[in-house]
Amino acid sequence: MKTTRREFSRLVAISAGAQLLSSIPALGEDRTIGYCIVGLGRISMQHFMPAVKMSKKARVTALVSGHREKADRMAAEYGVASRNIYNYENYDQIVKNTDIDAVYIALPNSMHAEYTIRAAKAGKHVLCEKPMATTVEDARSMIRACEGAQRKLMIAYRCQYEPAHLRAVQLIREGKLGSIQSIESAFGFPIAPNEWRLDKKLAGGGPLMDVGIYCLNASRYLTGEEPSAVKGFSSVVDKDGRFAQVEETLSWTITFPGGVLANCTCTYGSQMPGYFRVRGSKGTMIMEPAFNYDKVHLSGQLAGGEALDLSPDEPDPVQFLREAEHMVECILQNKEPKTSGQEGLRDMELMAQIYRDCEKKSA
Amino acid sequence: MKTTRREFSRLVAISAGAQLLSSIPALGEDRTIGYCIVGLGRISMQHFMPAVKMSKKARVTALVSGHREKADRMAAEYGVASRNIYNYENYDQIVKNTDIDAVYIALPNSMHAEYTIRAAKAGKHVLCEKPMATTVEDARSMIRACEGAQRKLMIAYRCQYEPAHLRAVQLIREGKLGSIQSIESAFGFPIAPNEWRLDKKLAGGGPLMDVGIYCLNASRYLTGEEPSAVKGFSSVVDKDGRFAQVEETLSWTITFPGGVLANCTCTYGSQMPGYFRVRGSKGTMIMEPAFNYDKVHLSGQLAGGEALDLSPDEPDPVQFLREAEHMVECILQNKEPKTSGQEGLRDMELMAQIYRDCEKKSA
Is A214 a catalytic residue? Predict the structure, then answer.
């Protein structure tokens, strides 16, 4: 009988000082995972790639870009071999490249499905940015493709790997806030004209798909429940041409099976730093800002005024590092990612439901 | 032809230095208005009556209470003659009492209609606490009764007389926030068992009628528009007997004709200090706390980081004083109150619509 890493670690912890031994790599887990970066935009170049650089478990080993010059520049910075630079035409050639274990897809939303499915066919694991796709059907196809190829599919819900968010979930589960009744959450920013996010075909929708998804996903992981129903309204106030195809602002309410109500707003029309407030019978928890790339801030107050200690044990300035390493762990240990394709699909289905309700009349 | 005060003032302003003359009282306006306090609860004794005491334009001249001892105590404190103490049976006798110009009704919601109508029949003006009534039909009857008797009917929406709220409205109208896209607002508190507010017959509904009405009313005066549609969900999480008749929490969304969306939550289950956030293309305005009796706090930030100067020119520690004096002004100058019966009726109709939508399924 083989001893798994977890069992081995437990045995070690029981028999001796576990802390001394915790740096011993488990069998097969000492190798690094090679990421192929698909799409060299801001999130790749400013966030994901620098995070991978900090990791001892992963490396950037290949790039896919339509801009060869930019790709060459990034290749030089990350020590990527010239032969490992691909474009969107020869992307499928990654099948032959053993330097690549997984792809990180950071393309316009409408391209997520295609590049995920092509990666799966090339035998590569997939870490795909949110929103998972532009349609529920595409999301299902991505899951099928990765399952068929027995490759991991993880959606890049970075907040689910961020220590303050994990601490928030933990405190709620421990009952520190008592029974939870409601959540308020919002996220938005004023969008510049001509962004691909304003093109419905590329984006799939407006701020709901891009920033509202943070509030939606948060309301699910904070409650630990799946919504029973949603209602909402969308609108366009600024008739300046930006919102010819997608909504400018969307407000929605979710009801959860246990009775928790989540009230959320997202916009492309104004500054709306992301936040959530969780209200319980024993107190309130506030994260604001909540969905930033770099800094988040969790605070709380118990009924009666007592402040909650909400600082995570392990503050983390680089959210993307944990995300990138979770994928590594799932590949090496053959585990299902915490934010799997199913997790992404659930948000896709809910966003479709919210859009449908926005078309409906009210009482 | 008699010259009204307004005409007289204008003539004076045109012909001479108006500033020098502005302290001359207009004809008939130097007399004080006598308030009869109907219901000696917290809001009367701790807020409204002390405010009237500070006024040079109004006096507490009569009391209505079921508790004679309490009434005697308050009468002594406010110099109310013993003959001017009434109970709920002999209340209609106020018709003969020339010390009373107006009644201030601070009873459980279900009694507002009856005591307003009886006051109108007794020839008295009415300042009635919010919510105006427990049903739309009652609200309409109140308006009819006061119109028929040619008496003023004002609903005690104190925030509409509070300088920081007025400043918020003014800044929005001046375009300081650019085009407004959305409002977030919430208000709630954990309710004690056995409160009359939990009795549907007395209260008419749950937190929506009691505290949510602040968010609803604020979203209307902040936008200056009347809602086009509403959607919502209500729920009960705490099955401890308190919420057998009314909702514990209610979240709703309003869409306004100009496209502004307002997302609001109210609860009796948790601490939820009242606030609103107004989001515009040029900046955000936050009032938090917003609906307290004593202190409110208005702040704002323009896009680009510039702080908005939001301190009202005239800070006001006693919100109820302005409310009480607005009623005086309306009586003496025969003006329609800013927060008239129609204003109260609009909220009643909207709350009924919100409750109806809560019964409806979503997409």
Answer: yes
